[in-house]
Design brief:
The chain is an alpha+beta fold. The chain folds into two domains: 2-254, CorA soluble domain-like (Beta Polymerase, domain 2, 2-Layer Sandwich); 260-316. Helices cover 58% and strands 14% of the residues. The protein is built from seven helices and seven strands, in the order βββααββββααααα. It has helices spanning 34-41, 50-53, 107-115, 126-160, 168-209, 214-278, 294-315, and strands at 2-8, 11-14, 26-30, 62-65, 68-78, 84-93, 98-102. A hairpin with a 2-residue loop joins strand 4 and strand 5. The radius of gyration is 34 Å and the shape is rod-shaped. The chain crosses the membrane at residues 259-281, 293-313.
Length: 319
């Protein structure tokens, strides 16, 4: 899918499908097909494949070719079938336009065109469109962090609730929730790391090419926002570890209570079993077998041994 936008006053206006891209200031390619890639490459811009964008070498993620800068960051998003993934997004910044290439759908990209004029950078130049997109992405990551924090709060309430202590399925559900939030947190932190690297690389471009002095201040403000989010992510990670440790401790307590109950039941039946085993031996000379009340006395001895064992456990507060 190819979406192209031109600057229209303080905002962006989508170009009709099929028109020339010569006046486009932002071209957004999502899952590009060959004709779309050829149309963009006719402008002198290279459209990277997903395999090229997934290369982990720094030279494949941040590089300059002529007057064009390429910055690849990792962002969370969705596939067309709704599956949540974490994939790279390429920002290709030429002197006269910005090209973004992505193979999934980060929500911030869909929301940005309608709010481009409301960002701190605005959208008067390709550089400002890039910074506005970064601002929208950082805002989305902040929303994900807040949602993760709220999910941890719900999990914490479930774990610390008295009704949840004896129920291991409830605790397991809480652990599953914590694991899901941990996965979200790891993706957010990875995105922030790649965004910080890209923003640092962009700072060099601003110092070398741009005459707009306000861009440097906007970049510094965005860097401070990212640093604050990283600190928030560290706080959420510490809280997540604490809550997961409590959940595992609760599960261990519940399991210990179950094992203790089984041990007590086995101990209660041990003395009666011993008596029954003695009188179940096949010896010819067992004087008690000839007594008329031997059978009820053996039953009474077994019951009394179980009761005495039970009272002893109660006295020791093992029950």
């Amino acid at each position: 899918m190819l979406d192209a936008y031109e600057i229209d006053g303080p905002g962006l206006r989508a170009l009709p499908e099929g028109v020339s891209l010569d006046h486009a200031k932002w071209i957004d390619l999502r899952d590009p097909v060959a004709p779309e890639a050829a149309q963009v490459e006719a402008l002198g811009l290279h459209v990277p494949t997903l395999a090229e964008m997934e290369e982990i070498e720094l030279s494949n993620r941040l590089y300059r070719h002529g007057e064009t800068e390429t910055m690849v960051v990792s962002l969370p998003g969705q596939l067309p079938d709704g599956v949540r993934v974490h994939r790279p997004v390429a920002f290709i910044l030429a002197p006269d336009r910005l090209l973004t290439v992505r193979y999934h759908a980060p929500r911030s990209f869909d929301a940005y065109p309608g709010q481009a004029d409301a960002t701190a950078a605005g959208c008067g130049t390709p550089d400002r469109i890039f910074l506005g997109l970064i601002e929208a992405v950082v805002g989305r990551l902040a929303d994900l962090l807040e949602a993760s924090d709220r999910g941890l709060e719900v999990a914490g309430r479930e774990i610390f609730a008295e009704t949840a202590i004896p129920h291991q399925p409830a605790l397991r559900a809480s652990l599953n929730r914590i694991a899901a939030e941990a996965e979200t947190l790891s993706k957010v932190r990875l995105s922030l790391m790649t965004l910080e690297r890209a923003l640092t690389y962009f700072t060099v471009r601003v110092a070398r090419q741009s005459d707009d002095t306000t861009l440097s201040e906007i970049v510094k403000a965005q860097a401070r926002d990212m640093a604050a989010l990283v600190e928030h992510a560290d706080f959420v990670a510490g809280r997540m570890g604490q809550i997961s440790d409590v959940a595992l401790g609760m599960i261990s307590l519940a399991q210990n209570a179950t094992v203790r109950l089984l041990s007590v039941v086995a101990a209660l039946f041990l003395p009666p079993t011993l008596i029954a085993s003695i009188y179940g031996m096949n010896f010819h000379h067992m004087p008690e077998l000839a007594e008329p009340y031997a059978y009820p006395l053996a039953l009474l001895a077994m019951a009394a041994s179980a009761v005495i064992t039970f009272l002893y456990f109660k006295w020791k507060k093992w029950l």
